[in-house]
Design brief:
Chain B: This is Urea ABC transporter permease subunit UrtB. The complex is a heterodimer of chains A (229) and B (308). Chain A has a single domain, classed as P-loop containing nucleotide triphosphate hydrolases (Rossmann fold). In chain A, 34% of the residues lie in helices and 27% in strands. Chain A contains nine helices and ten strands. In chain A, strand 4 and strand 5 form a beta hairpin. Chain A is globular. Chain B has eleven helices and two strands. Helices cover 72% and strands 2% of the residues of chain B. The relative contact order of chain B is 0.18. Chain B is mainly α and 308 residues long. Chain B has one domain. Classes of the chains: A alpha/beta (229), B mainly alpha (308). The interface between A and B is medium-sized, with 31 and 22 residues.
Chain lengths: 229, 308
């Protein structure tokens, strides 16, 4: 569904990702793990186009998107939930979700989004900034889903969320995948969360994949060695 | 007795000055609405806002001379067409300026101050070259001249009433656009987080351009209305720009209601005090009060209550 080839991303002279290759199958959930500063967020930002890659190609469902602007990539089927959620805090919950509808041309929030996140229906008139962290995370995911993506990118969704909600979130994300058949790429530091939701786990270090394993039969001890500081 | 006035005379003075204040209030609101969008929402310090207003005034002037020379029968209604043309001209210039200048400066808000100040000088000189340094006035159609007697001593001018009605309509339209339309939603998303707005699928460049254009267009309408109560010269805009920034900052950036409330407070204080003391003294007192209140409430009169 998404294919990344020879991706190179740098900030000025400092090269964060030298040469990344990544294939994501339709309906697959891939977790990208790694310690702080290993290039997870940079990878996400270059996939959605906030920080464009200096070389390489990214294609979604066969269309090359690597030269497109961010909003055009959303049109082609990418959606992004950033680290720290970045919801529009002065806008209401409903308005936040509606911003995601821009590329679809629809104006009403489809009912299945509220079905996934009933709490957002209860709070649809509240300002986004007044929601709790967990609710804001749900809102950011709902906003991303509103654009009907083929590939959903999530950057450290568990950051600052309490453990009981993390479990719930893994379940919801799997349900989203099952119902909509989309692919999910999630960057993560919490191993238990990644094991709960992902089909395949990649570990990156200095922008390169150093370990890769399907969820079943994964060597947990080895992965957590990569993550420990 | 208060000073040399009886109580009824004093009441009439208050009423008349209050009404004069309402007209000033209307011009402030029209000016500030555009700036509330450009400065309050987009964060661009547009020092050339007054010149966009004057562009609208000159368009109205051109329209009035053209209509009275060629189709005098249409003269009583020319004003509505002039307003639309004023909006279009200011909007077009706004879009051009955004494309040529402002879009490169979103990440350097302070530089917009210098750049737009330079732009305002260029525009002023252009007006001087094209229209001459002398102030020009438009002739009003008959139905806008005169005043309505309310009591024996209190009279309200009709052109003032027209400006107030116009202000009300424009404010309502801006409110609906910003808070009830899809376009407004996109604008608010972009001004709050430009990067993220792009990542949810909003064409941020286009939105920025249209937003800036709209703010300038509203300034054009303000200029059009301005011709009814004052004459237009190349530097008329400059006299209003400080007051307008004052209104937007005092009201609390990004709050439409705050802008209106602060325009009301400042204009009423100004015009009531102007009757009893000199104009500059009234201005000093108003500014002192505003500075005092802003020290206690740096965020302005009205703000949204949210966690940030």
């Amino acid at each position: 569904m998404m294919s990344v080839q020879n991706l190179r991303v740098s900030y000025g002279e400092s090269e964060i990702i030298p040469d990344m290759n990544l294939e994501v199958a339709p309906g697959e959930i891939v977790a990208i793990m790694g310690r702080n500063g290993m290039g997870k967020t940079t990878l996400m930002k270059s996939l959605i186009g906030i920080h464009p890659a200096s070389r390489g190609s990214i294609s979604v469902a066969g269309t090359d998107v690597s030269r497109l602007e961010t909003y055009q990539r959303v049109e082609k089927g990418l959606a992004y939930v950033p680290q720290g959620r970045a919801i529009f805090s002065t806008m209401t919950v409903r308005e936040n979700i509606e911003t995601g509808l821009t590329v679809t041309g629809r104006t009403k929030v489809p009912g299945d989004i509220y079905e996934l996140f009933p709490v957002l229906l209860d709070m649809k008139g509240r300002r986004g900034g007044n929601l709790s962290g967990g609710q804001q995370q749900q809102l950011a995911i709902a906003r991303a889903l509103a654009s009907n993506p083929k590939v959903l990118l999530l950057d450290e969704p568990t950051e600052g969320i309490q453990p009981s909600i993390i479990k719930e979130m893994a379940r919801t994300l799997r349900r989203i995948r099952d119902e909509r058949g989309l692919s999910i790429v999630v960057s993560e530091q919490v191993l238990s969360f990644a094991l709960d939701m992902a089909d395949r786990i990649l570990v990156i270090e200095k922008g390169e994949v150093v370990h890769e394993s399907p969820r079943d039969g994964i060597d947990e001890a080895k992965v957590s060695r990569f993550l420990s500081i | 007795m208060i000073g040399d006035y009886t109580y009824s005379e004093f009441g009439s003075i208050l009423a008349m000055q209050g009404f004069a204040g309402l007209i000033l209030f209307s011009v402030f609101v029209l000016m500030a609405l555009g700036l509330a969008i450009i400065f309050g929402q987009m964060g661009v310090i547009n020092m050339a806002h007054g010149e966009f207003m004057i562009l609208g005034a000159y368009v109205t002037y051109l329209c009035s001379t053209f209509v009275s020379a060629t189709i005098p029968a249409f003269f009583p209604y020319y004003f509505f067409v002039a307003m639309i043309l004023a909006f279009c001209a200011a909007f077009a210039l706004g879009v051009l300026v955004e494309w040529a200048m402002i879009r490169h400066l979103y990440k350097r808000p302070l530089d917009t101050l210098l750049a737009t100040w330079g732009l305002s000088l260029v525009l002023q000189q252009t007006y001087r070259t094209v229209f001459g340094a002398r102030e020009v006035g438009v002739s009003l159609p008959d139905w806008l001249i005169g005043s309505l007697p309310v009591t024996d001593v209190v009279e309200v001018p009709i052109n003032g009433l027209f400006v107030m009605a116009l202000t009300f309509v424009i404010t309502a339209v801006v409110y609906l656009l910003m808070y009830r339309s899809n376009w407004g939603k996109r604008v608010r998303a972009v001004v709050q987080n430009r990067t993220m707005a792009g990542a949810v699928g909003i064409n941020t460049r286009m939105t920025d351009r249209m937003t800036f254009g709209l703010g300038c267009g509203i300034a054009g309408i303000a200029g059009s209305a301005f011709t009814m109560i004052g004459s237009t010269g190349p530097t008329s805009g400059q006299q209003y720009i400080v007051d307008t920034f004052l209104v937007v900052v005092f009201g609390g950036a990004a709050s439409l209601l705050g802008t209106i409330a602060s325009a009301f407070t400042i204009s009423q204080a100004q015009s009531t005090m102007e009757f009893f003391m000199s104009g500059s003294m009234a201005k000093v007192l108003t500014l002192l009060a505003v500075v005092g209140i802003l020290m206690l409430r740096p965020q302005g009169l009205f703000t949204l209550k949210i966690r940030r």
